[in-house]
Amino acid sequence: MTISMHQVSVAPFKAGLKSLDAILDKAKAWTETKKIDPNALPLSLESGSLQSEVVATVGAIGLSTVNASTLAQDGTTYQAGHDPDTGLSRFICLAGTLQVQPTATGAPLLTLGPGQFVDVTVAGAGPVGQLRYVYLPQIQR
Questions:
Q1: Cβ pair 120, 88 in contact under 8 A
Q2: CB 96 within 8 Å of CB 75
Q3: What is the rounded CA–CA span in Å between residue 130 and residue 132?
Q4: Nearest 5°: phi and psi at 22?
Q5: Nearest to 93 by CA among 113, 111, 66
Q6: In this structure, are strands 88-95 and 116-121 parallel, antiparallel, or unpaired?
Q7: DSSP SS3 for 105
Q8: Which residue, among 14, 37, 12, 13, has the nearest Cα to 27 in the 3D structure?
Q9: pLDDT tens digit string along 36-82?
Q10: At residue 33, what are phi and psi to the nearest 5 degrees?
């Protein structure tokens, strides 16, 4: 008895696509109930750090910590970090523009440009600062 690659692979592949379709339907329903832009990618950072670059095809990436939430549009490269021991969140814009909204009541929306950073606590945001140095990773060839 001979068996083809088609016979072996199509049934599991179809089952996987059906499962993925169900997951995407649930995600769409969730974004509609939470009134979240389905083209934006929401992330949550509880501890540690993250570096992200938003490419033109993604649209927007939203990141939230205990102290603030951000929205990065196309072409933005930024770093974010949160230390739960000190309660401090730091947001650094390396390229593009980064919007930072502190969660403190009445805190204004901050827009960071390239080379700017801001520290945020539950009490609010500190002043926007300018990076003195930008550390770039060394590429080994």
A1: yes
A2: yes
A3: 6
A4: -65, -40
A5: 113
A6: antiparallel
A7: coil
A8: 37
A9: 766 666 667 777 766 666 665 556 778 888 889 888 877 788 888 88
A10: -70, -35
Six token digits for residue 59: 């649209």
Q: What pTM does this model have?
A: 0.63
Report d(CA 30, CA 36) in Å as an integer. Answer: 8
Residue 105 structure tokens: 């009541």
User: Chain centroid to CA 121: how far?
Assistant: 19
Whether the Cβ atoms of residue 63 and residue 77 lie closer than 8 Å to each other: no
Length of the chain equals: 141
Residue carrying structure tokens 């083209």: 39
| SS3 at position 48 | strand
Backbone region of residue 75 per phi and psi (left: phi > 0; alpha: psi in -120 to 50; beta: other values): left
Give the amino acid at 100: V
Look-up: residue for tokens 């990773």?
Answer: 137
Mark out the alpha helices in the chain (DSSP H runs): 5-33
